[in-house]
Amino acid sequence: MVSHGFNFESGDILAGMGASWFVSYAYYEKIDKFHRNWDKVPTVQPRLSRYKKGRAFHKAWLNEVLTMNPVKLNTNKIELDAQQTKMMAKELLKNWE
Q1: Whole-model pTM?
Q2: In 13-43, which positions are buried (b, 16+ CB within 10 angstroms) versus exposed (e)?
Q3: Among 45, 26, 37, which residue's Cα sits nearest to residue 76?
Q4: What is the Cα–Cα distance from 58 to 21, expressed in whole angstroms?
Q5: To 10 degrees, the CA torsion angle through 82, 33, 55, 76?
Q6: So where are the chain's domains?
Q7: 3-44, pLDDT tens digit by residue?
Q8: Are 66 and 90 in contact (CB under 8 A)?
């Protein structure tokens, strides 16, 4: 897993799991248990650890994802395009508790 870092608070944690992966797993956890794109990588366990470690930042990360470059978001290995990722992030924010 390559980590490029993001220039915002806790961006290193998000970079360690990948923005698209984060949105995919959050979407699975909170919206749709049938969504399983996040499970298409062999590094699920370390990513889950980072996901849990960064829980306090999840809402902020979702807002950051909405501003991310679509070309960069399209480089994920979980078969989501930037439009799908941003749509899921918007839905997560809309349903935030």
Answers
A1: 0.93
A2: bbbbbbbbbbbbbbbbeeeeeebebbeebee
A3: 37
A4: 12
A5: -30
A6: 11-94
A7: 456 888 888 999 999 999 999 999 999 999 999 999 999 999
A8: yes
